[in-house]
Amino acid sequence: MTAVPEGPERGGGRPKPGAPVDSRRRRWAGRARALGEAARVRTRRFWDGAQPTLRQLWWTEEPVTAVTTVDRRVPEPLAVPAQGQVYVFLVRATYTWSSETARPELFGWYVDYFQQQATQRLNRLAVRCAAEVPPHRPRDLHAALTAALADEDPPPWTYARGEVTFACEPDVTVHLDERVRKLLQPYWEQRIALECERDLARRRAEYAEERDRRGRPTTARAGKDGEPATTAPPADGSGPAGAVRDARGMPGEAGRVRRGSRLDGPVEAFTPLEPLLPPPAPRTAPGQRPRPGEPEPPQV
Fold first, then answer.
1. Which candidate in 71, 83, 221, 252 could, as Cys together with 246 as Cys, close a disulfide (CB 3.0–4.6 Å)?
2. Which residues sit opposite 109 in a β-bridge?
3. What is the DSSP annotation of 123-143?
4. pTM of the prediction?
């Protein structure tokens, strides 16, 4: 019998050493393609089934909220020449820097970079405004500088470097030169003293007027049938002297008008309204003889 060699397709293992190389390559290439196609099919099925679950687990980033960083810088005051170029004004400025695009760790570096430009910008305005202002009038310079900032170069000032933008708002105050302050000090001391004296004199006059008004008696009203004038008594029965009457309707001891004394004085002197007169002498009836010691009636 003739023996037939077993090939790989008949369940054999490795091909014999004498088999050609090209056939083995083709067999391994076909097997690799079959395995790759099966792997792709399984992978596609797995991906299609896992995609809904992966969508729920995907990381979603919220939009970044813009954060504004603010910083205030107070550099050295600017010495601005006043009228006459002899004395100067001291212009102090506070710069408020803000940005929404700068990172916090680089914010200070950008502020230092733009600070010099903002200082030169303010210095040009201050020099132009102070050229015609006397050195002892800082208020005028402050008003002129504020108007120039509002009309000519209104804040906020904007600065940019690349994609980073900054806004600057200056707050300005003006102060006197120390030499001018020493010259004006005696004048202001004298002016303050004069104003204090005037205020003191005005207050003294007000106090004196109020005291006279309190010490002035109540306006008297004339009585009926020639009676002496008496003050009008208040409704409650209390009041100054001369307003209280006795049971007969006549002014009592406490109701007589007292003259020559203040109502609010500690001691008041008693002064009657009329001098006390002696009682009239009795007269005898006609046809009777006078009693001893009585004057005789005149003869008609």
1. 252
2. none
3. HHHHHHHHTTS-TT-HHHHHH
4. 0.48
The dihedrals phi and psi of 198, each to the nearest 5 degrees, come to -65, -40
Interhelix angle 104-130/138-151, rounded to 10 degrees, is: 120
Phi, psi (deg, nearest 5) at residue 269 = -85, 145
φ, ψ at 93 (rounded to 5°): -130, 140
The amino acid present at 62, given as its one-letter code, is E
pLDDT at 89 over 90: yes
Q: Where are any strands of DSSP class E within 118-163?
A: 157-161
Distances (CA, A) of 284 to 68, 191, 278, 287: 123, 89, 19, 8
User: Tokens 């040009």 label which residue?
Assistant: 124
* Of 33 and 282, the one with more pLDDT: 33
CB contact at 8 A, 37 and 56: no
Structure-token pair, residue 241: 């002297």
How many Å apart are CA 40 and CA 46, to the nearest integer?
A: 10
Reduce the DSSP state of residue 240 to 3 states and report it: coil
**Residues 145 and 126: beta-carbon distance below 8 Å:** yes
Strand partners, 72: 96
Q: What is the pLDDT of residues 32-71, one digit of tens each?
A: 889 999 999 999 998 888 888 888 877 766 666 777 888 8
Bond into 156 cis (ω within 30): yes
CA distance 281 to 284: 10
